[in-house]
Amino acid sequence: MSARTKSRKRALDILFESEAQSLPTGGTLADRVGDTEYPVNEYAVLLIEGVVAHRERLDEIITENAKDWTLDRMPAVDRNLLRIGAFEVLYVDDVPDAVAVSEAVNLASELSTDESPSFVNGLLSRIVELKPTLIG
């Protein structure tokens, strides 16, 4: 597993944990940064801080493109994977869009429902298509 793949998983863990504890998005990051047992590297911090900084816009884009699904109805893992994937697609220039989508789909396959990989793939692929109109 590559360092960035581990970073994405760690970012997902922290975003999910914060949500499960009814804390603000990324609210457990400060506690986890010093955790020597399961360290949080710079890329995971970048992802979490990016999702926090752009959450309103990310959620808006996800909601607009999730046919017949509200954010609240999505499994928490999917919701946070979509935020991470959309953040990478829209704001991280050194990650190819296809890699961001593939990594999110792989994590959905590993950690979420049977339907999640195709849902995450379809929604992030749509965001990739719309990218030129979404940023600027």
Amount of helix: over 70%
Structurally, how many domains make up the residues?
Answer: 1
List how many beta strands DSSP finds: 0
CATH 4th-level superfamily? NusB-like
What is the percentage of strand-forming residues?
A: under 5%
Sum up the overall morphology in one term.
globular
Query: Element order, helices and strands?
Result: HHHHHH
CATH secondary-structure class = Mainly Alpha
Taking all residues together, what is the mean pLDDT?
A: 93
Rg is 14 Å
CA distance, first residue to last residue: 33 Å
CATH fold annotation:
N-utilizing Substance Protein B Homolog, Chain A
> What quaternary form is this?
single chain
Low-confidence stretches: none
Total helical segments: 6
Describe the structure.
With 136 residues, the chain is mostly helical. It has a single domain, classed as NusB-like (N-utilizing Substance Protein B Homolog, Chain A, Orthogonal Bundle). It has six helices and no strands. Helix 1 crosses helix 4. The longest helix has 24 residues. The radius of gyration is 14 Å and the shape is globular.
